[in-house]
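Query form — protein LRC52 protein

QUESTION: What is the three-dimensional structure of this chain?
INPUT:
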Amino acid sequence: PQPLSLMFLLGMGMASERISCPSRCSCQYLEVNCTGQQLKEFPVAIPLDTRQLILAANNVSYLPAVELSFLADLVYLDCRKNLLGDDLDFTFIGVAKLVYLDLSFNNLTQVTFSTFSHLQSLVVLKISDNPNLVAIEKDAFANNTWLRHLDVSRTGLKFLDTSTVRDLPNLRFLGLSDNLWHCNCSFLDFITWMTESNVHFPDADNITCYTPEGLRALKMPAVEAQLHFNCLPQLYKQDYIFLCLVGFCIFFAGTVAAWLAGICAVIYEVHTSKGEEGEEEAEDT
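ANSWER: The C-alpha coordinates for LRC52 protein are given below.
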Protein backbone atom coordinates (compact mmCIF):
# COMPACT_ATOMS: atom_id res chain seq x y z
CA PRO A 1 0.00 0.00 0.00
CA GLN A 2 2.79 2.41 0.80
CA PRO A 3 4.42 2.29 -2.69
CA LEU A 4 0.99 2.81 -4.24
CA SER A 5 0.35 5.87 -2.12
CA LEU A 6 3.75 7.31 -3.06
CA MET A 7 3.02 6.75 -6.75
CA PHE A 8 -0.37 8.41 -6.31
CA LEU A 9 1.16 11.48 -4.65
CA LEU A 10 3.83 11.70 -7.33
CA GLY A 11 1.19 11.45 -10.04
CA MET A 12 -0.88 14.15 -8.37
CA GLY A 13 2.19 16.40 -8.16
CA MET A 14 2.94 15.92 -11.85
CA ALA A 15 -0.66 16.57 -12.76
CA SER A 16 -0.80 19.76 -10.73
CA GLU A 17 2.42 20.91 -12.39
CA ARG A 18 0.86 20.38 -15.82
CA ILE A 19 -2.28 22.21 -14.78
CA SER A 20 -0.33 25.29 -13.62
CA CYS A 21 1.80 25.46 -16.78
CA PRO A 22 0.73 28.17 -19.25
CA SER A 23 -0.89 27.09 -22.49
CA ARG A 24 1.56 26.42 -25.35
CA CYS A 25 4.52 26.52 -22.97
CA SER A 26 6.64 23.76 -21.49
CA CYS A 27 7.38 23.61 -17.79
CA GLN A 28 9.93 21.83 -15.73
CA TYR A 29 11.30 22.42 -12.28
CA LEU A 30 11.31 26.23 -11.71
CA GLU A 31 11.46 26.92 -15.47
CA VAL A 32 8.78 28.01 -17.97
CA ASN A 33 9.73 27.97 -21.65
CA CYS A 34 7.43 29.59 -24.21
CA THR A 35 9.94 29.98 -27.06
CA GLY A 36 8.55 30.47 -30.57
CA GLN A 37 4.86 30.03 -29.74
CA GLN A 38 3.69 33.19 -31.54
CA LEU A 39 2.31 34.56 -28.29
CA LYS A 40 0.88 38.07 -28.53
CA GLU A 41 0.38 38.56 -24.80
CA PHE A 42 2.21 37.74 -21.62
CA PRO A 43 1.23 34.14 -20.67
CA VAL A 44 -1.11 33.56 -17.74
CA ALA A 45 -0.99 30.89 -15.04
CA ILE A 46 2.78 30.96 -14.65
CA PRO A 47 3.76 29.09 -11.45
CA LEU A 48 4.60 31.61 -8.74
CA ASP A 49 7.85 29.88 -7.83
CA THR A 50 9.25 30.20 -11.38
CA ARG A 51 12.92 31.16 -11.43
CA GLN A 52 13.51 31.09 -15.18
CA LEU A 53 11.07 32.43 -17.78
CA ILE A 54 11.81 32.25 -21.50
CA LEU A 55 9.54 34.18 -23.87
CA ALA A 56 11.93 34.35 -26.82
CA ALA A 57 10.76 34.60 -30.45
CA ASN A 58 7.15 35.64 -29.90
CA ASN A 59 5.03 38.72 -30.66
CA VAL A 60 4.65 40.06 -27.14
CA SER A 61 4.44 43.87 -27.17
CA TYR A 62 3.76 44.53 -23.48
CA LEU A 63 5.05 43.21 -20.16
CA PRO A 64 2.44 43.73 -17.40
CA ALA A 65 4.16 44.95 -14.25
CA VAL A 66 1.50 43.47 -11.94
CA GLU A 67 1.66 39.95 -13.41
CA LEU A 68 5.46 40.10 -13.37
CA SER A 69 5.46 41.16 -9.72
CA PHE A 70 3.79 37.86 -8.80
CA LEU A 71 7.02 36.14 -9.90
CA ALA A 72 9.03 37.52 -6.99
CA ASP A 73 11.65 34.72 -7.21
CA LEU A 74 12.39 35.25 -10.91
CA VAL A 75 16.12 35.46 -11.60
CA TYR A 76 16.27 34.84 -15.38
CA LEU A 77 14.05 36.50 -18.00
CA ASP A 78 14.60 36.06 -21.73
CA CYS A 79 12.39 38.28 -23.90
CA ARG A 80 14.55 38.51 -27.01
CA LYS A 81 12.93 38.71 -30.45
CA ASN A 82 9.60 40.23 -29.44
CA LEU A 83 7.85 43.55 -30.06
CA LEU A 84 8.57 45.25 -26.75
CA GLY A 85 9.08 48.98 -26.92
CA ASP A 86 7.75 52.41 -26.09
CA ASP A 87 7.76 52.62 -22.31
CA LEU A 88 9.25 50.01 -19.97
CA ASP A 89 9.54 52.35 -16.99
CA PHE A 90 8.57 50.63 -13.70
CA THR A 91 7.84 47.37 -15.57
CA PHE A 92 10.35 45.38 -13.48
CA ILE A 93 9.50 46.91 -10.11
CA GLY A 94 8.37 43.58 -8.62
CA VAL A 95 11.20 41.30 -9.80
CA ALA A 96 14.05 42.70 -7.74
CA LYS A 97 15.93 39.35 -7.70
CA LEU A 98 16.41 39.36 -11.47
CA VAL A 99 20.03 38.60 -12.41
CA TYR A 100 19.73 38.02 -16.18
CA LEU A 101 17.57 40.09 -18.55
CA ASP A 102 17.58 39.80 -22.33
CA LEU A 103 15.58 42.43 -24.25
CA SER A 104 17.53 42.21 -27.50
CA PHE A 105 15.80 42.26 -30.89
CA ASN A 106 12.86 44.40 -29.75
CA ASN A 107 11.61 47.94 -30.37
CA LEU A 108 13.01 49.78 -27.35
CA THR A 109 13.29 53.52 -27.93
CA GLN A 110 14.90 54.80 -24.74
CA VAL A 111 16.26 53.74 -21.36
CA THR A 112 15.60 55.99 -18.40
CA PHE A 113 16.52 55.78 -14.73
CA SER A 114 13.10 54.22 -14.02
CA THR A 115 13.52 51.41 -16.56
CA PHE A 116 15.94 49.20 -14.60
CA SER A 117 16.41 51.10 -11.34
CA HIS A 118 14.66 48.40 -9.25
CA LEU A 119 16.90 45.62 -10.58
CA GLN A 120 19.70 46.06 -8.07
CA SER A 121 20.84 42.44 -8.46
CA LEU A 122 21.14 42.60 -12.24
CA VAL A 123 24.38 41.13 -13.61
CA VAL A 124 23.64 40.63 -17.32
CA LEU A 125 21.63 43.08 -19.44
CA LYS A 126 21.25 42.67 -23.19
CA ILE A 127 19.50 45.45 -25.07
CA SER A 128 21.30 45.02 -28.38
CA ASP A 129 19.58 44.89 -31.80
CA ASN A 130 17.00 47.53 -30.90
CA PRO A 131 17.31 49.79 -33.97
CA ASN A 132 14.95 52.40 -32.51
CA LEU A 133 16.91 52.79 -29.28
CA VAL A 134 18.27 56.33 -29.57
CA ALA A 135 18.71 57.48 -25.97
CA ILE A 136 20.10 56.12 -22.72
CA GLU A 137 19.85 58.59 -19.86
CA LYS A 138 23.03 59.53 -18.04
CA ASP A 139 21.94 57.83 -14.78
CA ALA A 140 20.08 54.95 -16.43
CA PHE A 141 22.18 52.28 -14.65
CA ALA A 142 22.93 54.19 -11.44
CA ASN A 143 21.28 51.49 -9.28
CA ASN A 144 22.66 48.53 -11.23
CA THR A 145 26.02 48.44 -9.50
CA TRP A 146 26.36 44.64 -9.91
CA LEU A 147 26.05 44.90 -13.69
CA ARG A 148 28.90 42.96 -15.25
CA HIS A 149 27.73 42.36 -18.84
CA LEU A 150 26.03 45.13 -20.86
CA ASP A 151 25.33 44.94 -24.58
CA VAL A 152 24.02 47.94 -26.54
CA SER A 153 25.30 46.84 -29.96
CA ARG A 154 23.37 47.43 -33.19
CA THR A 155 21.04 50.14 -31.93
CA GLY A 156 20.34 53.72 -33.00
CA LEU A 157 22.63 55.20 -30.36
CA LYS A 158 24.81 58.13 -31.40
CA PHE A 159 26.06 59.16 -27.98
CA LEU A 160 26.60 57.60 -24.57
CA ASP A 161 27.61 59.67 -21.56
CA THR A 162 30.89 58.43 -20.07
CA SER A 163 29.56 58.38 -16.50
CA THR A 164 26.77 56.00 -17.56
CA VAL A 165 29.25 53.13 -17.82
CA ARG A 166 32.32 54.49 -16.01
CA ASP A 167 30.48 54.48 -12.67
CA LEU A 168 29.62 50.75 -12.90
CA PRO A 169 32.26 49.21 -10.60
CA ASN A 170 31.74 45.61 -11.74
CA LEU A 171 31.40 46.15 -15.50
CA ARG A 172 33.67 43.79 -17.43
CA PHE A 173 31.93 43.37 -20.81
CA LEU A 174 30.47 46.18 -22.94
CA GLY A 175 29.09 45.66 -26.45
CA LEU A 176 29.18 48.83 -28.58
CA SER A 177 29.53 47.59 -32.17
CA ASP A 178 27.58 48.71 -35.25
CA ASN A 179 26.02 51.81 -33.74
CA LEU A 180 25.72 55.28 -35.26
CA TRP A 181 28.36 56.88 -33.04
CA HIS A 182 28.82 60.62 -33.60
CA CYS A 183 32.52 61.17 -32.94
CA ASN A 184 32.59 64.88 -32.16
CA CYS A 185 34.45 66.72 -29.40
CA SER A 186 31.69 65.90 -26.88
CA PHE A 187 32.37 62.19 -27.46
CA LEU A 188 36.12 62.50 -26.93
CA ASP A 189 35.79 61.87 -23.18
CA PHE A 190 34.03 58.54 -23.80
CA ILE A 191 36.66 57.41 -26.32
CA THR A 192 39.43 58.32 -23.89
CA TRP A 193 37.70 56.25 -21.21
CA MET A 194 37.66 53.28 -23.59
CA THR A 195 41.44 53.40 -23.93
CA GLU A 196 41.97 53.59 -20.19
CA SER A 197 39.37 51.13 -18.85
CA ASN A 198 39.78 47.43 -18.18
CA VAL A 199 36.44 46.62 -19.81
CA HIS A 200 36.39 44.11 -22.68
CA PHE A 201 34.83 45.38 -25.92
CA PRO A 202 33.78 42.44 -28.11
CA ASP A 203 33.64 42.83 -31.90
CA ALA A 204 36.03 45.77 -31.55
CA ASP A 205 36.64 46.01 -35.30
CA ASN A 206 33.02 47.14 -35.74
CA ILE A 207 33.08 49.85 -33.05
CA THR A 208 33.49 52.69 -35.51
CA CYS A 209 32.44 56.30 -36.03
CA TYR A 210 29.43 56.91 -38.24
CA THR A 211 29.60 60.70 -38.30
CA PRO A 212 31.06 63.18 -39.10
CA GLU A 213 31.85 62.24 -42.68
CA GLY A 214 35.59 62.77 -42.26
CA LEU A 215 35.78 60.15 -39.49
CA ARG A 216 33.30 57.61 -40.84
CA ALA A 217 34.38 53.96 -40.47
CA LEU A 218 37.37 54.89 -38.29
CA LYS A 219 37.71 52.53 -35.36
CA MET A 220 37.33 53.56 -31.75
CA PRO A 221 39.35 54.18 -29.71
CA ALA A 222 42.05 54.60 -32.42
CA VAL A 223 40.25 57.76 -33.54
CA GLU A 224 41.19 59.42 -30.23
CA ALA A 225 44.36 61.02 -31.67
CA GLN A 226 42.46 62.46 -34.61
CA LEU A 227 39.80 63.87 -32.32
CA HIS A 228 42.44 65.42 -30.06
CA PHE A 229 43.87 67.19 -33.08
CA ASN A 230 40.44 68.32 -34.27
CA CYS A 231 39.21 69.46 -30.88
CA LEU A 232 42.29 71.40 -29.72
CA PRO A 233 42.39 75.05 -30.84
CA GLN A 234 44.18 75.28 -34.19
CA LEU A 235 45.93 78.49 -35.40
CA TYR A 236 46.37 79.07 -39.12
CA LYS A 237 48.49 81.64 -41.06
CA GLN A 238 45.72 84.22 -41.15
CA ASP A 239 45.25 83.79 -37.38
CA TYR A 240 48.93 84.65 -36.76
CA ILE A 241 48.68 87.69 -39.06
CA PHE A 242 45.57 88.84 -37.21
CA LEU A 243 47.25 88.40 -33.82
CA CYS A 244 50.31 90.37 -35.02
CA LEU A 245 48.08 93.19 -36.21
CA VAL A 246 46.25 93.25 -32.90
CA GLY A 247 49.55 93.32 -31.00
CA PHE A 248 50.90 96.13 -33.20
CA CYS A 249 47.69 98.14 -32.73
CA ILE A 250 47.89 97.70 -28.96
CA PHE A 251 51.57 98.72 -28.98
CA PHE A 252 50.89 101.72 -31.23
CA ALA A 253 47.91 102.83 -29.13
CA GLY A 254 50.03 102.58 -25.99
CA THR A 255 52.86 104.57 -27.55
CA VAL A 256 50.51 107.31 -28.75
CA ALA A 257 48.80 107.44 -25.36
CA ALA A 258 52.18 107.78 -23.61
CA TRP A 259 53.24 110.50 -26.08
CA LEU A 260 50.02 112.44 -25.54
CA ALA A 261 50.37 112.08 -21.79
CA GLY A 262 53.92 113.43 -22.00
CA ILE A 263 52.84 116.45 -24.08
CA CYS A 264 50.01 117.17 -21.67
CA ALA A 265 52.47 117.00 -18.76
CA VAL A 266 54.88 119.39 -20.48
CA ILE A 267 52.11 121.85 -21.34
CA TYR A 268 50.85 121.71 -17.79
CA GLU A 269 54.34 122.27 -16.42
CA VAL A 270 54.96 125.23 -18.76
CA HIS A 271 51.59 126.73 -17.91
CA THR A 272 52.25 126.31 -14.18
CA SER A 273 55.70 127.88 -14.35
CA LYS A 274 54.40 130.91 -16.31
CA GLY A 275 51.70 131.41 -13.72
CA GLU A 276 54.29 131.42 -10.93
CA GLU A 277 56.50 133.93 -12.81
CA GLY A 278 53.51 136.23 -13.27
CA GLU A 279 52.76 136.15 -9.59
CA GLU A 280 56.40 136.95 -8.70
CA GLU A 281 56.44 139.99 -11.08
CA ALA A 282 53.22 141.28 -9.55
CA GLU A 283 54.72 141.06 -6.05
CA ASP A 284 57.91 142.96 -7.11
CA THR A 285 55.91 145.89 -8.41
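ADDITIONAL NOTE: Residues 134 and 157 are 5 Å apart (CA to CA).
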